[in-house]
Amino acid sequence: MSTALSSAAAGADRADGFPLAEAVCPVIAHEWVNDAYKHLVIEAGHGAARARPGQFFHLLCPVIGENAPFFRRPMSLYRIDAARGRLEFLYKVVGRGTTTLATLVPGDALNVFGPLGRGFDFAGRARHIVQVARGVGLATLAPVAEAAARCGIRTTAILSARSRAHLMSVASLRAAGADVLTVTDEEGTSEVGAVERLVRRAIAERGGDFLVTCGSNRLLQMLQRVGRELGVAGEVALEQHMGCGNGMCFACVREFRTAQGGVAYRRVCWEGPVFDLQEAVSW
Amino acid sequence: MSTALSSAAAGADRADGFPLAEAVCPVIAHEWVNDAYKHLVIEAGHGAARARPGQFFHLLCPVIGENAPFFRRPMSLYRIDAARGRLEFLYKVVGRGTTTLATLVPGDALNVFGPLGRGFDFAGRARHIVQVARGVGLATLAPVAEAAARCGIRTTAILSARSRAHLMSVASLRAAGADVLTVTDEEGTSEVGAVERLVRRAIAERGGDFLVTCGSNRLLQMLQRVGRELGVAGEVALEQHMGCGNGMCFACVREFRTAQGGVAYRRVCWEGPVFDLQEAVSW
Amino acid sequence: MVDMTVRIGALTLKNPVMPGSGTMGEGLARVMDLGRLGAIVTKTITPEPREGCPPPRMVEYKDGSLMAIGIPCKGPDHYVDEILPQYRAYPTPVVCSVSAPTVDAFGRLAAKLSVAGVAAIEANISCPNLEQDGRAFGMDAEASARVVRRLKESTDRPVWAKLTPNVTDIAAVARAVAAAGADAVTCANGMLGMAVDVENFQPALGNVTGGMTGPCTRPVILRMAWQVARAVKIPVIGSGGVACARDALEYLMVGCAAVQVGTINFVHPTAMLGVIDGIEAFCRRKGIGAVRALTGAMRPRQDFREDQAA
Amino acid sequence: MVDMTVRIGALTLKNPVMPGSGTMGEGLARVMDLGRLGAIVTKTITPEPREGCPPPRMVEYKDGSLMAIGIPCKGPDHYVDEILPQYRAYPTPVVCSVSAPTVDAFGRLAAKLSVAGVAAIEANISCPNLEQDGRAFGMDAEASARVVRRLKESTDRPVWAKLTPNVTDIAAVARAVAAAGADAVTCANGMLGMAVDVENFQPALGNVTGGMTGPCTRPVILRMAWQVARAVKIPVIGSGGVACARDALEYLMVGCAAVQVGTINFVHPTAMLGVIDGIEAFCRRKGIGAVRALTGAMRPRQDFREDQAA
Ligand SMILES: Cc1cc2nc3c(=O)[nH]c(=O)nc-3n(C[C@H](O)[C@H](O)[C@H](O)COP(=O)(O)OP(=O)(O)OC[C@H]3O[C@@H](n4cnc5c(N)ncnc54)[C@H](O)[C@@H]3O)c2cc1C
Ligand SMILES: Cc1cc2nc3c(=O)[nH]c(=O)nc-3n(C[C@H](O)[C@H](O)[C@H](O)COP(=O)(O)OP(=O)(O)OC[C@H]3O[C@@H](n4cnc5c(N)ncnc54)[C@H](O)[C@@H]3O)c2cc1C
Ligand SMILES: Cc1cc2nc3c(=O)[nH]c(=O)nc-3n(C[C@H](O)[C@H](O)[C@H](O)COP(=O)(O)O)c2cc1C
Ligand SMILES: Cc1cc2nc3c(=O)[nH]c(=O)nc-3n(C[C@H](O)[C@H](O)[C@H](O)COP(=O)(O)O)c2cc1C
Ligand code: FES
Ligand code: FES
Question: Does A36 reside within a domain?
């Protein structure tokens, strides 16, 4: 399907036999989910067959007028529909690239590159995942529950957002069998201390034994503290501005704690975007 | 009207009181007239009130993907509708800029700068204009007959094109009172010698006393020869790649014969695009 | 109210925005009020009339252009008689750009052009030095300094030296011209580039090489302006790729007192007004009372961490 | 059938297209067959492990980018043990890029890296020379030549010298390294640039300055490649802003024997395949039997006049 459009990009669709591909994919659906986020569905058989939760695709956003994104934009997978060969993204419109991305309509072509990076690694390590997501983290953590369920792992998902309108993926998480708890700024329930109490309860009362988070530095710090204190392992998905998305340019480094007690740079696109919860240096 | 859209371009619509303006104008109509040419109508009160046949506007073609025209594109006026405050262009889709220009649909905004350059100067010099146009010259010469008629000048228009489908503006020239003769490659009537016979006849039998041409170097050479031989004055509209369109960058020069018998560079956008028929150096 | 004035040596400009030499002309007065500009810098004048380079004279890129114009010029008398009077109607100071093939010729030309209505002389030292194998004066610190010294002897007007970016150590050239008495440095002229018409196996420009200018050159010229501003005490005027107020602010913050706007004038004829208004709006938004305070306002990076907003 | 092979000194490459050092990595093998490339140039290796520059490491422009990466490196042993073996599966020659803070260190490093699987050494002389106030070796013809001489003494592999574009006279540096025995020159590394985060009055890059690369730099680097190709007899490898076959053809026609493709690999991971296929298609269309014939194929402009088609 995507090959029919391949002439739109030089060099696209040369994937044959390679785990990664630059592919030109038809847009299937593209709707606003609230005032800030859009939900994008594309047909991408190659990617859908290979992608894992926590991985991302590097999207070539169109050039339109003054908005001329030179590099691709990383977007984690919101849903992987291997059966229908589709990938879904949930993204916030913030700048040049996401602004032009948002103009695509069904039938348009989008050049994507992926799947990239190291996804979540909970199989065999977890029996009950406690995930804490905020902002774009809601998108990144969304596919975790479904994949976990497939390995017989339960999920408690604590979703934090500005308002109820910004709580996304509640229904799909429930459909995947997760217990979903929501907190919002609007209702005054999203304060870090309150979320910490929910996390501790999920660990103590529901058997939570693996922490997963994305989207908020303050929640990350809290989970690092709770995890250290209670000896609960976990992972965090991080962001950094990217060039290649494929480990080649070293633009996307962040600081991490090393085994020797120092700090070192690691590439978010290559060693991550999912990292050990305790190794990530919060900021 | 156009000011409502001015935020689309930094610095646009600061015209108040100046003969030239950068204005963001709504597209009123935009249709293909054959397989190669599009007819564009925009609302541009400021420009329509000031523009004269032979002048041009400098159009800021949109940036779309790989087609990123950095400079504006010059287009001569196909029709000046001062009454309705509209400008019309007839252009051939050839490269980056015209390709993105062609994507505009009614209601879109187009940033135009003008009117620019020196138009035709026949008032008081001509009683019967013989115009010879080919290719894009059909667009450039189209408004001449109507303006000429307004000064009581008659026009014989000899239009040359590849095929009958590429003969444009026949109806509007007739409506403006011109005698229209058409020749085409397809019919084998457009050969230079044949056109020369039509020109000589228009001078000899109809009182043609001013030659005007645009769009073909071979027709220009023929008219220079006929004009010299018969002592008939005339003008030619020329093209050259442009930066500013406003006499500032000196990118658009061509060679011209000087009074001293040498050649010198002159700016097509500033001393032209309409030049004395005999001073133009054909190539 | 933001105080937009800046001082370039003895000269006070009403704001820090002016055209680059060769990127404006009488045509601009037909689109905007030249009285709003900080200064009017006119196209380079040479001692003898010149026709300039053979066409084609330009190649366009996505974010800039390559032009080989070659300074067509009708000579100094035509400048004094025909060009200068066009700007007399404006309160804006006129800066006259000059160029010549020898140090002597630079001096004679500047003397000739030090007439009423010329507020300063900008030395375009990117031109070939006929006394040194045609290598541009500006590519050699000592040759640049010689030009400036001669100009200072030949005119009582402030002398600005416009550097070429095609050098290893632009700070060294800036130091040399400052020591020679330059009142300001302009940083910088176009970057030497070329293009090939591959279909026809020939150079795309009639002159083979040309000057690369426009937004895409800004990162490199900005770095040079920063190096120059740290090397000299005289005012630095940034010139390279300014298209909007944000771009001009970069130059001011790395140490420039003013900016020149060039190629973008060809695309947006009133771009300079947008730059002026945008700088003023920025100052207002940041509570900065005088645009002068922006000069060199860049501070070392904080390890500044903002919480990810959700 | 077009003969796509090119000779870089003693080395024959199956085609003239290779990545620029630091713009490919093991990740590329997951997208395309590295066996199709003319050569594999690996990221610069330094004698000691380095972490590289503090983030932020990049700024994006419309047609290029500014990056300050700072050559993070795990040292030569890691290169030999971990990186080189990844490319053993391919028939493609591996060119090992090296850099060091002193001439001696350059020599020792090259000796250490002259192992099986390394077909040539590329000297990245854009790095600071600690024996000369940290000024880059490549900014000085004599220092560049010293590096090349030492490399030639230290390794039996062909030595390529990768020039920095941040110089007044790149042809002079090229002549110096050619005289010192370089087997080829690569022209050139990134152009030094900077950017300001004006909202926060601070440098946009953690390292303040960085390397400007990508398509917008091509006109300037192409001019340098042309100057270098006219100055030396050894093969020239063009490196700057190649995104498609047309761009590569410009470099070949001004005199390059091959090209390196850099930044665009980050945007289109299989861009190099497009360049290879496009060059071949061009040769076929023009009836050119061997890509070698394109090297220096640019001719002076004809006063070539084509009739305006209607
Ligand atoms: C692995 C990964 C997964 C992500 N997944 C999602 C997701 O599922 N949904 C979502 O809404 N966002 C996600 N992001 C963030 C998203 O990539 C940025 O919002 C987007 O790049 C902004 O691009 P822009 O051109 O609109 O913004 P601009 O601010 O115009 O971009 C300028 C530059 O900054 C970079 N940039 C800006 N913000 C970020 C950021 N937060 N992270 C990385 N680079 C940034 C851009 O890529 C670009 O290089 C993810 C980021 C990473 C690294
Ligand atoms: C005064 C004037 C009036 C014109 N009027 C008309 C008109 O009414 N109808 C019409 O169809 N065309 C007209 N043209 C030609 C028109 O400007 C070009 O066809 C157009 O610029 C091509 O742009 P492009 O980006 O599509 O082509 P590209 O080939 O991609 O353009 C590359 C560069 O070459 C320039 N260029 C290419 N062809 C020409 C040309 N023939 N003349 C000048 N610059 C060119 C472009 O402006 C651009 O700078 C006129 C030209 C001039 C100078
Ligand atoms: C078409 C053109 C002509 C120029 N002519 C001159 C000139 O005559 N003298 C001069 O000193 N600089 C000249 N310049 C350089 C500009 O003044 C300016 O320094 C340069 O373009 C960089 O600024 P920009 O990137 O904003 O264009 C010219 C530039 C262009 C594009
Ligand atoms: C992120 C990045 C890292 C680079 N690292 C190196 C390097 O380690 N050694 C080197 O010699 N050149 C390095 N370069 C320069 C490239 O090899 C190449 O010469 C330059 O990018 C110009 O080509 P381009 O315009 O196609 O990118 C690097 C360039 C980039 C963009
Ligand atoms: S984005 Fe290039 S290494 Fe991570
Ligand atoms: S296009 Fe600039 S002078 Fe004519």
Answer: yes
